[in-house]
Fold:
Amino acid sequence: MTANIASPHGNQPGTDVLVIGAGLSGLMAAVHAVQAGARVRLIAEGWGQQLIAPGWISVCDRADDDVIAEVRGYAALHPDHPYAKAGDDAMVHGLEAFQAITAAIGLSYDRRRRDGHNMRLITMLGAIQRVMMAPRGIANSDWTDVTESILLVGLRGWRDFYPELAAGNLRSQGIEARAIRIDLPEPPGPWDRWPTDLARLFDSSAFRAAIIKQVQPHIRGVEKVGFPAVLGLDHHTEALTNLSEQIERLVFEIPTLPPSLPGLRLSNRLRRWLLRRGVRVQIGHPVTRGLVEGDRCVGVEVQALGHVTPFYADHVILATGGLYSGGIQTSETGRVWEPIFDLPTAGPDVPGREGWYYDRLLKERGHPIHRQAGLRVDHDLRPLNAAGEPALANVYATGHMLAGFNPLTDGCAEGIALATAYKAVHTALELDDKNHRGATDTGL
Amino acid sequence: MTPTAVDVLVVGGGATGAAAAYDLARRGVRVLLVEQSDLSTGTSGRYHGLLHSGGRYAVGDPGTAAECITENRILRHIAPFAIEDTGGLFVATPDDPADHPARWVDACRAAGIDIDALTPAQARAQEPALTPHITAAYRVPDAACDSFDLVHGFVEAMRALCAHSTLCGDLLAYHRVIRLVTNDNSVVGAEVENVRTGDRQVIHAACVLNAAGPWAGMVAGLSGITVKVKLDRGTMVAMNTRWVNTIINRLRPADDGDIIVPVGTVAVLGTTSVTTNRPGDHHVENWEVSKILGEADAVIPGIRQGRALRAWAGVRPLYEPPDIDHGDTSGHGVQRRFAVIDHRVRDQLGGLVTVVGGKLTTCRLMAEEAVNVVCDQLGVDTPCTTAAEPLPLPAFRQQYHRLDHRLRKLEHGQLPGQLICECELVTRPQIEAAIAGYGDHPVALDDLRRDLRLGMGPCQSGFCSVRAAGILHEVKEHSNLKVTRALKDFVDERFRGVKPLLWGHQLRQLYLDELIYRRTLGLDRLIAPTPEERLDS
Structure:
């Protein structure tokens, strides 16, 4: 192991792009880098927010008509917003590349609306969320052009889905909906079922057959049939197609409490895709420190198996997430910071944390902390130091860790993740958009 | 059926009122206890859980110190089910006044408090989390006390006594006293209002005992007389684990952030002292949390980086005789001695006695002295016997009020049904039973929280609230809009307790909760904010 000390790169294979973080932006950054022919390593402490998020792709939820046009208009007026930093092209190409890669790995993400408007999707409480793109099962819930009734199917004895309440709230909004409960063919065990347990059951065609038999008598006058989003894990697409065909109605999924099956399916398949292309994927290993020489990051230290190991790379994509994932830390004294490179954030460094939160959790437009607790970056997505200059020449930040938007209220978290992942990799590798194969060639 | 005529109407279902009602029942007096909310929801329920040895008051308030140690021994004897004998330590750090320990030792001896001097090494052997920089340490007979258990113990004991006799001892919860009925310079009863239905009724009583704590001034004021209660708000912070197994007191003159109390599965840090003018002022300011954590960190290094679950505040009703002006604005300086005011003597108004001030530790003594005055007015000469005989073990102890009980049941397969609140181990059958217990009355999710501890664990209702709302909709057949509104109200109520603690892990937890409510559920899209809510910041 002395070779490691003698040479910065030691006996590790060379790494062109090191991605830190396995959320949506980290995984997609690794995909873009692979597609550009780079040697890629991905290190993450854990999976990202896709495991707690509903699973759809919010690009600009508040847009009343053309979503992309709304984003372009907004970015033009707000130069500090991550969409403006990433640029219009990165947003469009990032979305297209995501749609292409997910189709290639067998998980279709649909837009459904030909006019570029947001879909109107149904939540487990019966609210309507306007979203541009979603996994096919969730996108199928779009009720924009629904003329008949919607049927919601609950699973008797399962604690995480209450179809009667959802149907009641839908009817209160003028949407024709009703609810039924069906029995699970499997006898109940001593413990509650998690979404993942149910998803594995739905992977089995015999299990699905028993479900279908119970739903069929209720479909008269029904246009769509909704289930909690547990329709399969490894064989989700097959399960969705099979249910739709046998019930003879469009079947949709409704996101439930975490863990999120749509997020888990995506994580599993993207990881497998990366591994097959020789990407070294290390999940469960926290990066503790950046190794900096002059104005460049030459590598990072990783804590694993009881010791600290350095990993070296030419470019670093910092995709460690925001307040939830640990990419941005907060302290009781009011400090807000990025821990790996000790980068400053846009704030709010307020003694005593005054003004971080309003008095009500569901305050309209959200709490100030979310918009400010993130990194400020230049137009290459390089984090800025306290003086407002790029802190490091070869470190690029993406996704939730960027300042200037509220991921919980602004309805653009996934759009920003995809746009900035695309932009960061293309800037780092100095790729010309036209030469990049990512948007079209996603072959397995 | 609520009786409309009793001997004594006790106002206030906190520790003092409950102990007084029990005391009266033991003396054969017909009593009714009226409480504006639920039992122990005022100061008694917003308490840190420290059964004082008296050490904390030995130097500044020797009278209270002596009362504390006496009552400490009595409560251990009569209510062992409510007490965990953790023992206590007083520890001094280099930042504390060097001359204080010697004075404190003398004062403890004078008050009759048993103290043992420990070396710093002995103290750290007992509590390894303590700072290595201890300059002095003493062991005292402090204990942890569950005020909820204690108050219920008094009330159940009162009911048990009355079940075997013609006494009518009962509790009237969710009823507020809105008028004192007077007749010829004497209070002869009170008009009470059901806070849920608005129904009113008059209850005739030969005497009214005002044990309303922070509201005592308002209750006395209904008869036009003045009782000056100094309202002093104190904040407490619950950490998510038991950092210590012994109560830790700072050995210095009483100040903010002096105590650390292991209670159940958590450690409670307390307290601050801020003058307020509202009996229901339960807000917590960030500086109070920082102050408490900073002080605790001086004694237990690293606790400041621990995970704080919830912060809450209680209002101490400190009594100031009208003729004394302390000039000290901090509540720490006001004596904690209680007062029993015989309004027949002080205000020439018969039939009304007020008890105010004091400590939870001295609640039985306060009740005894107040009841003595009441009995004097009634012409009853039966002596107080509450110190002698242990309270019967309350029935609610079998209802898994405590997390460890629930866990034991769960591990032995005795908590069947879906686990709805995973933090506090609340099952669907328990929720259904609690809902059924309200009969035709409406049920709020916060009622279920108080009954079952739903949503009080680390996730602060992120997962269980929507499940409980779904069950409420199914079982109770409340409309979908009503249930959705109840869910939103519950979310807001839970947020109040964690808002001062949002950094690090707890901020991440609230991020998850907010993500569930806003994105996965779309709760904010279903319930429009009220005009007042729009204005609030």
Chain A has two domains: 13-102+265-435, 124-254.
